[in-house]
Design a protein that fits this description.
alpha+beta
Length: 322
Protein backbone atom coordinates (compact mmCIF):
# COMPACT_ATOMS: atom_id res chain seq x y z
CA UNK A 1 0.00 0.00 0.00
CA UNK A 2 2.89 2.34 0.84
CA UNK A 3 4.53 1.65 -2.52
CA UNK A 4 1.22 2.38 -4.25
CA UNK A 5 0.94 5.74 -2.48
CA UNK A 6 4.55 6.59 -3.40
CA UNK A 7 3.85 5.72 -7.04
CA UNK A 8 0.73 7.93 -7.06
CA UNK A 9 2.73 10.81 -5.53
CA UNK A 10 5.47 10.53 -8.14
CA UNK A 11 2.91 10.37 -10.92
CA UNK A 12 1.27 13.49 -9.51
CA UNK A 13 4.57 15.38 -9.58
CA UNK A 14 5.16 14.26 -13.16
CA UNK A 15 1.67 15.39 -14.20
CA UNK A 16 2.22 18.81 -12.63
CA UNK A 17 5.57 19.19 -14.39
CA UNK A 18 4.17 18.18 -17.77
CA UNK A 19 1.15 20.47 -17.32
CA UNK A 20 3.24 23.58 -16.63
CA UNK A 21 5.73 22.67 -19.33
CA UNK A 22 2.83 22.55 -21.79
CA UNK A 23 1.52 25.91 -20.55
CA UNK A 24 4.94 27.51 -20.93
CA UNK A 25 5.31 26.05 -24.42
CA UNK A 26 1.96 27.50 -25.47
CA UNK A 27 2.90 30.93 -24.11
CA UNK A 28 6.20 31.13 -25.97
CA UNK A 29 4.98 29.38 -29.12
CA UNK A 30 4.05 32.63 -30.94
CA UNK A 31 7.64 33.80 -30.61
CA UNK A 32 8.84 30.70 -32.45
CA UNK A 33 6.64 31.03 -35.53
CA UNK A 34 7.06 34.73 -36.34
CA UNK A 35 9.78 35.84 -38.74
CA UNK A 36 10.65 39.06 -37.01
CA UNK A 37 11.90 39.31 -33.43
CA UNK A 38 9.35 40.24 -30.79
CA UNK A 39 9.89 43.11 -28.38
CA UNK A 40 11.55 42.40 -25.06
CA UNK A 41 8.32 43.30 -23.32
CA UNK A 42 6.75 40.16 -24.79
CA UNK A 43 9.09 37.82 -22.93
CA UNK A 44 8.78 39.86 -19.74
CA UNK A 45 4.99 39.77 -19.96
CA UNK A 46 5.01 36.06 -20.78
CA UNK A 47 7.16 35.26 -17.74
CA UNK A 48 5.01 37.52 -15.58
CA UNK A 49 1.81 35.81 -16.75
CA UNK A 50 3.30 32.35 -16.25
CA UNK A 51 4.37 33.24 -12.71
CA UNK A 52 0.97 34.69 -11.84
CA UNK A 53 -0.77 31.57 -13.16
CA UNK A 54 1.40 29.34 -10.96
CA UNK A 55 0.74 31.50 -7.89
CA UNK A 56 -3.01 31.60 -8.55
CA UNK A 57 -3.33 27.88 -9.16
CA UNK A 58 -1.36 26.73 -6.11
CA UNK A 59 -2.85 29.36 -3.81
CA UNK A 60 -6.26 28.08 -4.83
CA UNK A 61 -5.18 24.45 -4.54
CA UNK A 62 -3.66 24.56 -1.06
CA UNK A 63 -5.26 27.57 0.65
CA UNK A 64 -8.68 28.12 -0.90
CA UNK A 65 -10.02 24.72 -1.98
CA UNK A 66 -10.13 23.46 1.64
CA UNK A 67 -12.93 26.01 2.21
CA UNK A 68 -14.80 24.59 -0.78
CA UNK A 69 -14.36 21.03 0.52
CA UNK A 70 -15.82 22.11 3.86
CA UNK A 71 -18.85 23.37 1.89
CA UNK A 72 -18.13 27.03 2.60
CA UNK A 73 -18.90 27.89 -0.99
CA UNK A 74 -19.64 31.60 -0.63
CA UNK A 75 -16.50 32.20 1.44
CA UNK A 76 -14.46 30.24 -1.10
CA UNK A 77 -15.87 32.25 -4.01
CA UNK A 78 -15.16 35.57 -2.30
CA UNK A 79 -11.61 34.60 -1.34
CA UNK A 80 -10.88 33.20 -4.79
CA UNK A 81 -11.99 36.40 -6.53
CA UNK A 82 -10.04 38.56 -4.07
CA UNK A 83 -6.86 36.50 -4.51
CA UNK A 84 -7.12 36.47 -8.30
CA UNK A 85 -7.81 40.20 -8.33
CA UNK A 86 -4.76 40.92 -6.14
CA UNK A 87 -2.47 38.70 -8.22
CA UNK A 88 -3.76 40.17 -11.47
CA UNK A 89 -3.28 43.70 -10.16
CA UNK A 90 0.34 43.01 -9.23
CA UNK A 91 0.94 41.44 -12.61
CA UNK A 92 -0.72 44.36 -14.40
CA UNK A 93 1.98 46.65 -13.01
CA UNK A 94 4.38 44.88 -15.38
CA UNK A 95 2.15 43.90 -18.29
CA UNK A 96 -0.29 46.83 -18.02
CA UNK A 97 -3.31 44.69 -18.87
CA UNK A 98 -5.38 43.89 -15.78
CA UNK A 99 -8.39 42.44 -17.64
CA UNK A 100 -6.38 39.87 -19.61
CA UNK A 101 -4.45 38.87 -16.51
CA UNK A 102 -7.65 38.44 -14.48
CA UNK A 103 -9.31 36.36 -17.18
CA UNK A 104 -6.29 34.08 -17.62
CA UNK A 105 -5.85 33.54 -13.88
CA UNK A 106 -9.56 32.88 -13.32
CA UNK A 107 -9.67 30.48 -16.26
CA UNK A 108 -6.66 28.51 -15.05
CA UNK A 109 -8.00 28.33 -11.49
CA UNK A 110 -11.27 26.89 -12.77
CA UNK A 111 -9.58 24.43 -15.11
CA UNK A 112 -7.08 23.16 -12.53
CA UNK A 113 -9.80 22.90 -9.87
CA UNK A 114 -11.80 20.71 -12.22
CA UNK A 115 -8.72 18.58 -12.97
CA UNK A 116 -7.99 18.27 -9.25
CA UNK A 117 -11.43 16.98 -8.39
CA UNK A 118 -11.47 14.70 -11.42
CA UNK A 119 -8.12 13.18 -10.44
CA UNK A 120 -9.21 12.93 -6.79
CA UNK A 121 -12.34 11.00 -7.82
CA UNK A 122 -10.27 8.75 -10.06
CA UNK A 123 -7.80 7.97 -7.26
CA UNK A 124 -10.65 7.35 -4.80
CA UNK A 125 -12.14 4.81 -7.21
CA UNK A 126 -8.78 3.04 -7.37
CA UNK A 127 -8.60 3.08 -3.58
CA UNK A 128 -12.13 1.68 -3.28
CA UNK A 129 -11.22 -1.11 -5.68
CA UNK A 130 -8.15 -1.98 -3.59
CA UNK A 131 -10.27 -1.79 -0.44
CA UNK A 132 -12.89 -4.06 -1.98
CA UNK A 133 -10.24 -6.64 -2.87
CA UNK A 134 -8.83 -6.43 0.66
CA UNK A 135 -12.26 -6.82 2.24
CA UNK A 136 -13.05 -9.81 0.02
CA UNK A 137 -9.83 -11.50 1.16
CA UNK A 138 -10.65 -10.76 4.79
CA UNK A 139 -14.16 -12.11 4.22
CA UNK A 140 -12.78 -15.37 2.84
CA UNK A 141 -10.39 -15.68 5.77
CA UNK A 142 -13.16 -14.88 8.24
CA UNK A 143 -15.52 -17.57 6.96
CA UNK A 144 -12.87 -20.24 6.54
CA UNK A 145 -11.24 -19.75 9.92
CA UNK A 146 -10.66 -22.50 12.51
CA UNK A 147 -13.53 -21.19 14.64
CA UNK A 148 -16.04 -22.17 11.97
CA UNK A 149 -14.51 -25.62 11.50
CA UNK A 150 -14.27 -26.31 15.23
CA UNK A 151 -17.93 -25.44 15.67
CA UNK A 152 -19.04 -27.73 12.88
CA UNK A 153 -16.80 -30.55 14.09
CA UNK A 154 -18.22 -30.12 17.58
CA UNK A 155 -21.73 -30.38 16.14
CA UNK A 156 -20.77 -33.55 14.29
CA UNK A 157 -19.23 -35.01 17.44
CA UNK A 158 -22.34 -34.29 19.50
CA UNK A 159 -24.51 -35.80 16.78
CA UNK A 160 -22.40 -38.95 16.72
CA UNK A 161 -23.02 -39.40 20.46
CA UNK A 162 -26.65 -38.33 20.82
CA UNK A 163 -28.10 -39.33 17.47
CA UNK A 164 -25.65 -41.18 15.28
CA UNK A 165 -28.38 -41.96 12.72
CA UNK A 166 -28.33 -38.32 11.61
CA UNK A 167 -24.56 -38.08 11.35
CA UNK A 168 -24.44 -38.87 7.59
CA UNK A 169 -26.95 -36.07 6.95
CA UNK A 170 -24.81 -33.64 8.91
CA UNK A 171 -21.71 -34.60 6.97
CA UNK A 172 -23.55 -34.11 3.69
CA UNK A 173 -24.80 -30.72 4.89
CA UNK A 174 -21.28 -29.71 5.90
CA UNK A 175 -20.03 -30.65 2.44
CA UNK A 176 -22.85 -28.59 0.90
CA UNK A 177 -21.93 -25.57 3.01
CA UNK A 178 -18.24 -25.76 2.22
CA UNK A 179 -18.94 -26.24 -1.48
CA UNK A 180 -21.15 -23.16 -1.49
CA UNK A 181 -18.53 -21.07 0.33
CA UNK A 182 -15.76 -22.00 -2.09
CA UNK A 183 -17.93 -21.46 -5.18
CA UNK A 184 -19.70 -18.27 -4.08
CA UNK A 185 -16.63 -16.43 -2.82
CA UNK A 186 -15.32 -16.37 -6.39
CA UNK A 187 -18.46 -14.63 -7.66
CA UNK A 188 -19.47 -11.01 -7.43
CA UNK A 189 -23.13 -11.93 -6.90
CA UNK A 190 -25.21 -15.02 -6.23
CA UNK A 191 -28.92 -15.77 -6.35
CA UNK A 192 -30.72 -14.73 -3.18
CA UNK A 193 -32.36 -18.15 -2.97
CA UNK A 194 -28.91 -19.81 -2.93
CA UNK A 195 -27.79 -17.57 -0.11
CA UNK A 196 -30.94 -18.35 1.86
CA UNK A 197 -30.49 -22.09 1.34
CA UNK A 198 -27.02 -21.78 2.84
CA UNK A 199 -28.48 -19.87 5.81
CA UNK A 200 -31.03 -22.67 6.31
CA UNK A 201 -28.27 -25.25 6.57
CA UNK A 202 -26.23 -23.08 8.90
CA UNK A 203 -29.19 -22.54 11.24
CA UNK A 204 -29.79 -26.29 11.41
CA UNK A 205 -26.20 -26.78 12.48
CA UNK A 206 -26.52 -24.17 15.21
CA UNK A 207 -29.74 -25.70 16.48
CA UNK A 208 -27.85 -28.92 17.07
CA UNK A 209 -25.02 -27.10 18.85
CA UNK A 210 -27.28 -25.14 21.22
CA UNK A 211 -29.77 -27.96 21.60
CA UNK A 212 -32.51 -26.98 24.11
CA UNK A 213 -30.83 -23.69 25.03
CA UNK A 214 -31.94 -21.78 21.97
CA UNK A 215 -35.14 -20.61 20.34
CA UNK A 216 -34.91 -19.61 16.67
CA UNK A 217 -37.77 -17.87 14.87
CA UNK A 218 -37.09 -17.73 11.14
CA UNK A 219 -39.61 -16.03 8.83
CA UNK A 220 -39.13 -15.74 5.07
CA UNK A 221 -41.27 -14.01 2.47
CA UNK A 222 -39.63 -14.75 -0.87
CA UNK A 223 -41.76 -13.27 -3.65
CA UNK A 224 -39.13 -13.60 -6.40
CA UNK A 225 -36.16 -15.94 -6.77
CA UNK A 226 -34.16 -14.36 -9.57
CA UNK A 227 -32.61 -11.49 -7.63
CA UNK A 228 -28.88 -11.34 -6.87
CA UNK A 229 -26.81 -10.14 -3.91
CA UNK A 230 -23.10 -10.27 -3.03
CA UNK A 231 -22.23 -13.67 -1.49
CA UNK A 232 -22.00 -14.18 2.26
CA UNK A 233 -23.39 -10.70 2.90
CA UNK A 234 -25.91 -11.62 5.60
CA UNK A 235 -23.91 -14.34 7.33
CA UNK A 236 -21.72 -12.12 9.55
CA UNK A 237 -24.82 -10.68 11.22
CA UNK A 238 -26.21 -14.18 11.79
CA UNK A 239 -22.90 -15.53 13.07
CA UNK A 240 -22.62 -12.64 15.52
CA UNK A 241 -26.06 -13.44 16.90
CA UNK A 242 -24.80 -16.89 17.88
CA UNK A 243 -21.29 -15.89 18.92
CA UNK A 244 -22.18 -12.84 21.01
CA UNK A 245 -25.79 -13.50 21.94
CA UNK A 246 -26.74 -15.03 25.24
CA UNK A 247 -29.66 -16.06 27.45
CA UNK A 248 -31.36 -13.33 29.44
CA UNK A 249 -32.84 -13.83 32.92
CA UNK A 250 -32.19 -17.57 32.73
CA UNK A 251 -34.20 -17.86 29.54
CA UNK A 252 -33.11 -19.39 26.25
CA UNK A 253 -30.99 -17.57 23.71
CA UNK A 254 -33.61 -16.14 21.38
CA UNK A 255 -32.89 -15.28 17.76
CA UNK A 256 -35.56 -13.84 15.49
CA UNK A 257 -34.77 -13.59 11.78
CA UNK A 258 -37.00 -12.07 9.10
CA UNK A 259 -36.10 -11.94 5.42
CA UNK A 260 -38.30 -10.34 2.76
CA UNK A 261 -37.41 -10.44 -0.93
CA UNK A 262 -39.42 -8.83 -3.71
CA UNK A 263 -38.68 -7.22 -7.07
CA UNK A 264 -37.51 -3.96 -5.53
CA UNK A 265 -35.54 -4.80 -2.40
CA UNK A 266 -34.39 -7.29 0.22
CA UNK A 267 -35.10 -6.65 3.89
CA UNK A 268 -33.11 -8.53 6.52
CA UNK A 269 -33.85 -8.21 10.23
CA UNK A 270 -32.26 -10.13 13.08
CA UNK A 271 -32.77 -9.69 16.80
CA UNK A 272 -31.08 -11.71 19.53
CA UNK A 273 -30.97 -11.62 23.28
CA UNK A 274 -27.83 -10.15 24.76
CA UNK A 275 -26.41 -11.22 28.09
CA UNK A 276 -25.66 -8.37 30.51
CA UNK A 277 -22.30 -9.99 31.26
CA UNK A 278 -21.34 -9.89 27.57
CA UNK A 279 -21.01 -6.16 27.05
CA UNK A 280 -17.46 -6.56 25.75
CA UNK A 281 -18.65 -9.26 23.37
CA UNK A 282 -21.26 -6.80 22.09
CA UNK A 283 -18.49 -4.33 21.27
CA UNK A 284 -16.57 -7.12 19.62
CA UNK A 285 -19.65 -7.92 17.59
CA UNK A 286 -19.81 -4.36 16.28
CA UNK A 287 -16.14 -4.54 15.28
CA UNK A 288 -16.67 -7.97 13.73
CA UNK A 289 -19.11 -6.69 11.10
CA UNK A 290 -16.85 -3.82 10.03
CA UNK A 291 -15.86 -5.71 6.88
CA UNK A 292 -19.50 -6.24 5.96
CA UNK A 293 -20.18 -2.52 6.40
CA UNK A 294 -17.31 -1.73 4.05
CA UNK A 295 -18.60 -4.22 1.49
CA UNK A 296 -22.04 -2.61 1.67
CA UNK A 297 -20.58 0.87 1.22
CA UNK A 298 -18.62 -0.28 -1.84
CA UNK A 299 -21.05 -2.66 -3.52
CA UNK A 300 -24.43 -1.22 -2.46
CA UNK A 301 -23.91 2.45 -1.54
CA UNK A 302 -27.67 3.16 -1.40
CA UNK A 303 -28.38 0.47 1.22
CA UNK A 304 -29.96 1.15 4.60
CA UNK A 305 -28.30 -0.35 7.67
CA UNK A 306 -29.42 0.24 11.25
CA UNK A 307 -27.88 -1.44 14.29
CA UNK A 308 -29.49 -0.98 17.70
CA UNK A 309 -28.30 -2.45 20.97
CA UNK A 310 -29.52 -2.44 24.56
CA UNK A 311 -28.49 -4.38 27.60
CA UNK A 312 -31.05 -7.04 26.66
CA UNK A 313 -31.18 -7.13 22.85
CA UNK A 314 -29.03 -6.64 19.77
CA UNK A 315 -30.92 -5.77 16.56
CA UNK A 316 -29.88 -5.35 12.93
CA UNK A 317 -32.01 -3.96 10.10
CA UNK A 318 -30.70 -4.06 6.55
CA UNK A 319 -32.49 -2.99 3.37
CA UNK A 320 -30.87 -3.67 0.00
CA UNK A 321 -32.44 -2.24 -3.16
CA UNK A 322 -32.19 -4.22 -6.40
Amino acid sequence: MRNAKTTIFHRGLLLHFLFWLSVLALLIYPSLIVDQPLPNDYYRNTFSLFTSLCISVYTNRYLLLPFYKRKKYILYLILMLLVITAISYVESILCENFINSFIFNLLFVLITSFLHFYRKTYLENIHLKELQDSVELKLLKEHLNPHFFFNTLNILYNASITNSSKLPDFIVSLGTMMRYIFKSIEKEKVLVIEELNFIDVYLNFEKIRFSDHIKITYNKDIQVQNQYIPPMLLMPFIENAFKHGGPIRNKKLEINITIIVNKSFLIFEIKNTNSITKTQNLLSSVRGIANTKKRLEILIPNHQLRIDSTKDYYCVYLKIPF
